[in-house]
From TrEMBL:
Protein known as: DUF4097 domain-containing protein
Keywords: Coiled coil, Membrane, Transmembrane, Transmembrane helix
Residues covered by the DUF4097 domain: 216-370
KW Chloroplast (keyword) present: no
Domain of life: Bacteria
Coiled coil: 13-40
Listed transmembrane segments: 102-126, 138-158, 170-191
Length: 518
């Protein structure tokens, strides 16, 4: 027998038909062994000559079957130690067989996954070369390393070229490692763009507008300049070549509309760092629109007059002062928002940051999740505060109508005049020295009211306790009741004037109407 094919034909003839599946597994092992030997430079004839005769291999196989039968028989003449040893060997063979089967199934799937990754990184590399004129270091390195692994996985299917494939794998993996070490040491693994500076001026103050969006980290400032100047924008920092091209080729008349550093999957290995943008707005210029949409940044905005004031910020802080607008909208997920001495109808949506608004004129709506809202010196027709689990404090303000709602947060209103409605499910309501009319509704949380002046009020609760502290020198009628809780009313026998009346009612909570003591 000079060829493996002849050897396998004789071996197959020695196996019974019902054992042909085991023969096929043995055949695959022998072919795999032949491939390895051929790769090492041996001839097929030399490999076949060293194999045991086919009849001997078949005899060993059937001897193992007989021993398995003896192990499983009801009576056995085989020594226990030999049975245990055969059992262990059998289990090892079964485990090896199982592992081989799993690898056969997983190998194509792993290969497909690696090919998909290689394709993505190759597209990434080509795209960055074309658009940014830059070699994408990390994707290029990953392409080389993945290619080396893929070649090793497919070399078993290309037996005549295995030496060449091994050589290519070594070259690709070596080149990838060298590039990784070099760019790591020199700090050039990530694409960082290039330093860039640009001033953009509008042609007229009439119907001027600014719109700027970015997913990079940006520091933004507005500066009031002389009324004789034109509105303009200064941009400075590191930018991608594609963004620089967008800025240079942009058309600017009475509006600057820029979108830079927009994140996508092909910017995974790009780090341009923080950039700076300054808006120069002439005094007394009324903009048609002022819009900022940022993922990260810090904003300091002063002395802006605009019809529409719109800020959309994911992470970062906002400080705004002397903003005059018809409509204002601020969305902030994780930053602090501070607005001082401004006039506009404002809507604020804050997830977890702090919101501070002082000295503002105009209607106000705040949607809060778990942050802190501090509001002072407001003059509004309508104030709406919706809070989930955070804390809202309103002080020293005047409004025709206030409505606050909360789930389990805290609502605190002090020294405020107007029709005040405070509703909570399980959090705390605090009302102190307010004027006008009060309506306090709570589910299971505490409700506390402190009054020195007279007021008309309706206070109700499901199960939370209610405490009302009233200046005894003020003649006010108090009607209090509770279903099953404790009741105390220090003003029970004090006649009211008829003009002011306080109604306090709880289904199951305690109610205490107490004299306010200095």
């Amino acid at each position: 027998m000079n060829t493996m094919e002849e050897y396998l034909n004789q071996l197959k003839a020695a196996f019974a038909e019902e054992d042909i599946e085991d023969f096929n597994e043995l055949k695959e092992d022998l072919l795999e062994q032949l491939a390895i030997c051929l790769e090492e430079g041996q001839t097929e004839e030399e490999v076949v000559a060293r194999l045991a005769p086919p009849e001997e291999i078949a005899a060993d196989y059937y001897a193992d079957l007989s021993l398995d039968a003896a192990i499983n028989a009801k009576t056995s003449v085989v020594p226990r130690e030999e049975i245990q040893d055969v059992f262990i060997q059998t289990q090892k063979k079964r485990m090896q067989k199982f592992i081989k089967t799993v690898l056969k199934v997983l190998k194509p799937l792993v290969l497909l996954l690696l090919l998909a990754l290689f394709t993505f990184f190759l597209i990434y590399t080509v795209r960055e070369l074309y658009e940014e004129h830059n070699l994408a270091r990390i994707p290029t390195i990953l392409c080389l390393l993945l290619l080396a692994v893929i070649l090793q996985l497919v070399k078993g299917w290309i037996i005549p070229k295995q030496k060449l494939i091994n050589g290519l794998s070594i070259v690709f993996s070596g080149l990838g490692v060298v590039m990784l070490l070099f760019f790591s040491i020199t700090g050039q693994l990530m694409y960082s763009g290039r330093q860039y500076y640009k001033e953009i001026s509008l042609t007229s103050n009439h119907h001027a507008a600014f719109s700027f969006d970015s997913d990079a980290d940006v520091e933004i400032t507005s500066v009031e300049v002389s009324s004789t100047e034109k509105p303009s924008l200064m941009i400075k920092g590191r930018f991608k070549e594609s963004d620089i091209k967008k800025i240079e080729n942009g058309s600017y008349d009475n509006k600057i509309n820029l979108t830079l550093d927009k994140e996508n999957i092909f910017d995974t290995f790009t780090r341009t760092g923080r950039s700076e943008v300054i808006f120069f707005i002439p005094k007394d210029t009324i903009l048609d629109d002022f819009h900022l949409g940022l993922s990260r940044g810090d904003l300091r905005l002063l002395d802006i007059q605009t019809k529409n004031f719109d800020l959309d910020l994911t992470a970062g802080d906002v400080y705004a002062k002397n903003i005059i607008a018809d409509e204002g909208n601020v969305d902030s997920d994780y930053g602090d928002v501070i607005i001082e001495e401004s006039a506009m109808n404002l809507k604020v949506n804050s997830v977890s940051g702090k919101t501070v608004i002082t000295g503002m004129l105009g209607n106000l709506t705040i949607e809060g999740n778990k942050g802190l809202s501090i509001l002072k010196f407001l003059r509004s027709d309508k104030v709406v505060l919706n809070n989930h689990s955070g804390r809202m404090i309103l002080e020293d303000s005047e409004t025709k109508k206030l409505k606050t709602t909360a789930t389990d947060g805290q609502v605190i209103v002090k020294r405020t005049k107007g029709d005040l409605v405070m509703i909570n499910e399980s959090g705390k309501i605090v009302s102190e020295e307010n004027k006008g009319t009060l309506e306090l509704k709570n589910g299971s949380g505490p409700t506390i009211a402190i009054q020195e002046s007279k007021v008309n009020a309706n206070v109700s609760s499901e199960s939370g306790f209610i405490k009302w502290l009233q200046d005894p020198s003020q003649s006010v009628e108090v009607v209090a009741s509770t279903g099953t809780g404790e009741l105390r009313n220090d003003f029970l026998d004090i006649p009211g004037s008829g003009k002011y009346k306080i109604n306090v009612k709880s289904k199951t909570g305690d109610v205490k109407i107490l004299e306010k003591v200095e």
